[in-house]
Amino acid sequence: MRNDKIQISEWGLEEHPSTELLRQYEEGSLPPATNYELEKHLLDCEMCEDILTGMSLADRKRTSQARYRIWQRIRTRLRRKHRPSTILSLADWRVAVGVLMMFSSLGLILFYAYTRTATQEQAAMHAAEILPPSPEELLARTIDAALVLDIPAPPVAASHPDSSGPKASSGFSLEGQLVDENGQGIAQATIQVQGGPWETTSDERGHFRLSLVAGSHTLLVSKTGYAPQTFHVESPGKTLRLRMGNRRQ
């Protein structure tokens, strides 16, 4: 009787009798008290009754295998039921797509701004390269060109020598310096031969040079701040020193 109470107590904790207990019931090897309690349970439990019916139709080995497979299926379903779902919901997908579109738009805006800035910088650099020289640069270039300007005399037509006539005239280089009343050189003054195509400009120290034909010439000298003056020269063999008058007030 003591063993029956222990079996009933263990069975009560499990809520259903074990398959081994059902097998003993089928074989008729259970004590009367346990047999009575089990029959009462079978009247109210269809699952245990179905198991007992199945056990009566199959042998013990096949029943154990079937029971093992059933419990494996139950455990698998329980694991699947409690496994967290990894598939995002529709709302989560919408949020993810919205964030992706926002970052894509921001990237496009930054790329457009960078490209536009780079294009403007390249255009500015190109414009700086092709800009014309400033007036100061043009003036400096003109002064440099005027300092080295030397207009040669026009060619003299060749003629056959005639013992009875005068000899043909030859050319010479007229060099001189243009100074003020204090003896300081006057730069950028224009020296022009009246009645001829010869013209030049004095350098920083007032020096100038003209290629003329032999004979007498009248030089017209003009300079900003001075009154124009004329000088008469005749094929000199030395450097002239021309002195300008007072500056204009």
UniProtKB/TrEMBL annotation:
This is Carboxypeptidase regulatory-like domain-containing protein. InterPro entries: CarboxyPept-like_regulatory. Keywords: Carboxypeptidase, Hydrolase, Membrane, Protease, Transmembrane, Transmembrane helix. Gene3D superfamilies: Carboxypeptidase-like, regulatory domain. Coiled coil: none annotated. One of its GO terms (molecular function) is carboxypeptidase activity. It comes from Pontibacter indicus. The chain crosses the membrane at residues 87-114. It comes from the Bacteria.
